Request: fold
Amino acid sequence: MNTAPAVAAVTGRIIERSRPTRVAYLQRTHEAAERGPARGRLACSNLAHGLAAAGPTDKEALRAFVKPNVAIVSAYNDMLSAHKPFETYPAMLKKAVMGAGGIAQFAGGVPAMCDGITQGRDGMQLSLFSRDVIAMATGIALSHDMFDAALMLGVCDKIVPGLLIGALAFGHLPTIFVPAGPMVSGLPNGEKARVRQLYAEGKVDRGQLLDAEAASYHGSGTCTFFGTANSNQLLLEVMGLHLPGSSFTNPATPLRHELISAAGRRVTALTALGTEYTPVGEVVDERAIVNGVVALLATGGSSNHTMHLIAIARAAGITLTWDDFSDLSAAVPLLARIYPNGPADVNHFHAAGGIALIVRELLDVGLLHDDVTTVAGKGLRRYTQEPQLRDGHLSWVDGPRDSLDKETLRLASDPFAVDGGLRIVSGNLGRGVIKVSSVQAKHRVVTAPARVFDDQAELLAAFEAGDLDGDVVAVLRYQGPAANGMPELHKLTPALGVLQDRGHQVALITDGRMSGASGKIPAAIHLTPEAAAGGPIAQIRDGDVITLDANAGTLELHIDQAELQAREATGHVLTNDEWVGTGRELFASMRAAVGPADQGASVFAPRSGQAISVP
Reply:
């Protein structure tokens, strides 16, 4: 199958615009690889420190430089359900690597925070910054020059992008990501959302709300909705960084345990001391990045990846833009409806055909690049297979050729929509992102007067007081990266959903983020330039009429341009003296250095001669 014209065009321009930084990145990666195992250049005293805790056999092997040494970097903690399964992974991975002729050492841990816990709290203001902290922590774990490959253990929102950005700083090391899988299905997500909305209306009490939440989030594994965590897993698989079919196998099952061991064996073979040297910096190339964007669009994945994929690409010397997302979205059909875009959760999606079917369909119509390098070998067609246990042995078989549930997953010949689940909107208020896959067609164009807020608590208070009971475009500003770390604003969804259900025209405009699970309400998010950087969102006044048209991709404030330019910015920008508590003061330097959302909202910036640098 020939590559679809839109995919070929976008890939070509990414390759061309990225050429200087990509060449510099690959040159650095190749130079690191040519020098051989880095521990061979360590002084005796340095190497002795790296060997001190190893057993006698491992010490001899590490001294001789004949066995590959694999780093394990983990986001394990036992408070977060998605990362709890990682507690037992290192021992299984070490055993598998040893059986394959290598050695593995636990190189370091990285922090992992949960947006679900910090939603609406001050701690949420650290969430986006945690991605870059995780990248730096990964860099520290790999900095000892002891390793020939890496295994990355992470699942959730900022953790996986951070681990990958950090791994790409060591692009000469083969790297496999080892997922934990989703928890088994509990209370249906639609029922959970219904109870949340009833609580927002005062029709159920806190105890009933907690009962519903606890029945939904009830065990070890990833939350089952299609938010950023599960979008991460899908993207890594389609980008060739997981073993095929490993993303959505539930934890603590025989198949999951075999997949863990298989990752350890496979990464050992991918080292320069193995038979199929496959550095991560070559796996993550321009085609893999485009494949990730296409998979995100085809499944209605998390809007957070309009920032994360840009930051990941930059870490590999590749420049990805919102225009690339927009042009691909116009050409990529929507093939999945997973909550909040539909009633099914990721377990249902997986059972219906899952990633194997998505990859097959997109390859067959030319929307994915097959000519890529993956941790499973050459070519993405390998990812149309799925793992099975036969007589206790792991094997891969061809995945389904048709959906087993067409309300959840469809073929490219019969999509849910002819274009993707994310769109870019622009106009005299700047540029933003809107996730349309979960917004009904009748709600995608809204014209209404603005109500302006500088804090989500103020918006919720106005709702509770009945002050928003009418057509409204809620404007929530000073929520961008430089203002307060760009917290997620998913807590607003139930209240705004109530207004929409009452028959009002409702939309949200913000320079902040919504959750990867956001939906129902049309929301233009990540608005750039942000209010704290002088963006025109700071000049909106109560009563101004705004049109958000997701179909046309426009966002317009209906006042004369000269009047808009003459207006003074209003609202409150937090000072460092106010930005304290819950550890926020420790991150003031990151708030001062962070870039805009359309460039990845990162404290890392590209500089001539290298892929990323810290300003």
